[in-house]
Amino acid sequence: TRGQRSYWLVELVYWRDVKTTGVVFGAALLLLLSLSVCSIVSVGSYVGLALLSVTICFRIYKGILQAIQKSDEGHPFRLYLDQEVALSADLVHKYSDGILQKLNWTIEELRRLFLVQDLVDSIKFAILMWILTYVGALFNGLTLLILGLVGAFSCPIIYEKHQAQIDHYLALVTNQVKDIVEKIQEKVPGLKRKAE
Fold first, then answer.
1. Burial level of 110, CB count in 10 A (0-12/13-18/19+)?
2. pLDDT tens, 7-44?
3. What residue stretches are annotated with the Reticulon domain (predicted)?
4. What's the pTM?
């Protein structure tokens, strides 16, 4: 269920099971670093070759072992070959409906921002786009993914250990930003939000 998946994700990024988190973080970081050096086709081919090498060697090893011991255990991957791997129509509809809902919300929000339904929100969006032009000039998308992955696996645990100090400074910054926004809204005509 959704609650179990989010619980598992929280347990993962908070490093509750260090071994599992280390494997997931290491594999994801290795994949992203590989993609920064090689093309996605090369990385996919190398990963496929590595998996095939392991499974072929294991199959040959088990075959030799069965021949020496004169046993008839059968195919070593029979358990996995007999499992059903097809996606159910219900599962596909469930996830595609969720994606469609998020896509429609995104389109609505972009329309609202680009057609300036709310001047303050559109200006905030313009400032965000302007900042992202500088971010884009400094980093490519893959570098941002790597930084995001490292942040996702380090920020939660750092916050958990230093929550009081972080909350204190975050409150100070939030109050300063609110004061600045209020001053700007008072000085510039047309920027005050309408009462909702």
1. exposed
2. 888 888 888 889 999 999 999 999 898 888 888 888 88
3. 9-196
4. 0.58
